[in-house]
Amino acid sequence: MAAKTIVGMADMKVVKHPGMLTTLGLGSCVGICLYDPISKVAGMAHCMLPDSTKITNNSNVAKFVDTATIRLINDMAKVGANKRNIVAKLAGGAQMFNFTTTDNSMRVGDRNVDASLKILKELGVQIKAQDVRENYGRTIELYTDDGRLLVKTIGKGTKEL
Fold first, then answer.
1. Is 0.85 surpassed by the pTM of this model?
2. Residue 43 burial (CB < 10 Å; 0-12/13-18/19+)?
3. What is the set of active-site residues?
């Protein structure tokens, strides 16, 4: 059984095979899961906000999609991943509450997903799968043996990406 490493909110971790990364309770937060299938190095970030440049207290790079993604790739490379081999899977970015306003700032889940798609494209990282948006929370598990991502949801069961 692979050792389980828990990634907290506004946190990120990298593990080598054999290992498993998990994060609980992704609502509007987005789980960015990166994997190098050759070196079997995996990384996961649990990001709360899309853009570090819009916040004055931005010292926690794991809190933001833009800074977390770059740091995660670099941290993976430090333990043997090849940046050219890294692929991504995304989960989360839900709209957990209904708002009657058209104010886009309240749509944090959508903004997190959009920021993730944008930064991964800019960095040349292929997105293999995603389970994003909707209106429910998720718990995810990323496995280093084959890069599979299990997405667990209350009332909707488990799916494998």
1. yes
2. buried
3. 29
